[in-house]
Write a structure and sequence with these properties.
It is built from seven helices and three strands, in the order ααβααββααα. It has 147 residues and is mainly α. The protein has two domains: 72 residues, Orthogonal Bundle (Arc Repressor Mutant, subunit A), CATH 1.10.10; 41 residues. A hairpin with a 2-residue loop joins strand 2 and strand 3. Helix 3 crosses helix 4. The longest helix is centred in the last third of the chain and has 21 residues. 13% of the residues are buried. The N terminus is likely disordered. This is Penicillinase repressor.
Amino acid sequence: MRSSSNILSHNLGELELRVLEALWQRPHLDARQIHEALCAQTPPRRTPGLNTIQSTLERLFRKAYVDRIKQGHAFTYHASVSRGNLLGRMLGDVIKLLHDGRMETILSSFVQVASDLDDASLDELEALIRLRKSQQSDAGVGGDQDD
């Protein structure tokens, strides 16, 4: 069995996710601006210091989650991965880690999570399924074709 640390290599800590969230909301911020944004959202005793934010940004840069541009004496940062892309990658990794070879396990878990969705989200899910089936049909993939 593969180690979870290899599969979940982009597993992010809470602060890293909070920094990414700030950058998804307002791209092209420097460390001080990110610190200010986090201070506005966090009780004072839980607010990380500016040095901690700078270290977190450096880690995110090394992990390729943010890009940076030199602006005078500081860097401005922007997320290099979208929220949706990161979510998809993380979910894919969890599935690879826990998948037992049967699609029923994955689908059952997904349906359980989807039971909390509103009607609009369920409609969107149905549309995505129809689109995927159509793409597979156009490509000649799948077992529902009549010959």
